[in-house]
Amino acid sequence: MTRESAADGLLARVWAELGRDTAELGALGSLPAAPLPARLDVSGLAVASVAAASLAAWARTAAADSIRLDGDRVAAAFQSERVARLDGVAPDVWSPLSGFRRARDGWVRTHGNYPHHAAALRRVLGLGSAEARPEVVDAAVAGRDADELAEAVTAAGGMCVVVAEEDPAADAHLREHPLVDLTRSTDAAPRPGPARGAPDRPLEGVRVLDLTRVIAGPVATRTLALLGAEVLRIDPPEPAELGWQHLEGGPGKRSALLDLGREADAARLRALLEGADVVVLGYRPAALGRLGLDPDDLTARYQGLVVAQLSAWGTEGAARERGGFDSLVQAQSGIALVEGGPDAPGALPAQALDHATGYLLAASVTTALEHRAVRGGSWIARMSLRRTAAELLGMPRGLATARRGLDDARRSALAMTLVGEAGSQRLAVPAIASPMGPVRWRAPARPWGADRAEWAS
């Protein structure tokens, strides 16, 4: 099996899970390889997910072989943090508290990019309020057992997991469930589909509420904005989003703040939901229930609503309430040891679980809107980073792979600069392909919290 056919096979299965006509796959040209060198088939996962999002947007109107992906653009988009420059400065992506560390009896992966997660890790390790020198953290971790440390950090509100071997039986069980879980939730009457005004804006007239953070959700919603949807991102005032992360994930969106613990702000969100077509959720299930945002409740209350729910570990069992990031899922699922060497774990060449899940979630939303227009109903799409990890671990290995990734010069050539109130933003060009050719970001990200919590149109 070639790398291209592995991507084709994954795309065909996703298309079936979405309940779409396989004849639509004919609008897509031959799938390229993406220069994302790894032992696992990151290229196949990346290309298939971007193909799904591209095809879902234009499949019904595109001529045969008219949607053609560019493998280099896919790779640059999946490594978008390496392309980003904000006012000419590269973002400081990883905190010194984030990374692989050797414990007394194994390895752990810590994550301290957010200040509150960093503070929790320092408390458990007995470090000073600002101590983050890697060698000091390494020494503190070295004296702890891996399981005990991970449990203590998690209980304290921080982020730490044990680096584990892959579990083929567990992954096979996960793969018995859909990668893209799209279900009809209610019998609401059909609602008109997207306005489809301009050929390059297939989601024009669609309103999307974005309640997500950290790559996967923002990738999905910035893709919907790219396709012409009106996307309004809602964040709580605290904790503040990381500045570079908000801007890199925010082109084409507006940004507002609401404290849902205040009744006035909760009422404002309910008013927004009354006018929304889609809401994308990234909170843990307990928080969703507490805030009145449980997906089943939402679709019952707002007939015809499309809900996209994103999680790190899935929505079943005790793990569903754990926080997580791509790097942590890589570590605990076994990916880190597959990609590592004899002396230390390793990582994929991109936050590929996040990006792939984001593009597939965008394809799910676009498809749900089409289903709603024809069949009616409210719809719920669910995806998790852990399920995407199981998919990657189950893809064929040992295929011919790129020996090298993109160099800095090629990444620079695959960037575009947008200038707005938040300054100059150099971003990777979109990976999405259209029948009209390559697409470009429509507008720069707005400053965090700069907009009113209301629909623009």
Structural overview:
This protein has 457 residues and is α/β, with parallel strands linked by helices. Helices cover 39% and strands 15% of the residues. The protein contains 18 helices and 15 strands. The chain has a 7-stranded mixed sheet with strand order 5-11-10-9-6-7-8, sandwiched between helices. Helix 2 packs parallel to helix 16 (352-375), helix 14 packs across helix 17 (385-394) and helix 16 (352-375) crosses helix 17. The model has no long low-confidence stretch (mean pLDDT 93).
What is the topological layout?
Blueprint: H1 3-17, H2 42-58, H3 71-78, H4 80-83, E1 85-86, E2 99-103, E3 106-111, H5 115-125, H6 134-142, H7 146-155, E4 159-162, H8 168-174, E5 181-184, E6 207-211, H9 216-226, E7 230-235, H10 243-248, E8 254-257, H11 263-274, E9 278-281, H12 285-290, H13 295-301, E10 306-311, H14 326-333, H15 335-339, H16 352-375, E11 379-384, H17 385-394, H18 408-413, E12 415-420, E13 423-428, E14 433-434, E15 437-438
Helix pairs in contact: 1-2, 2-3, 2-16, 8-17, 9-16, 14-17, 16-17
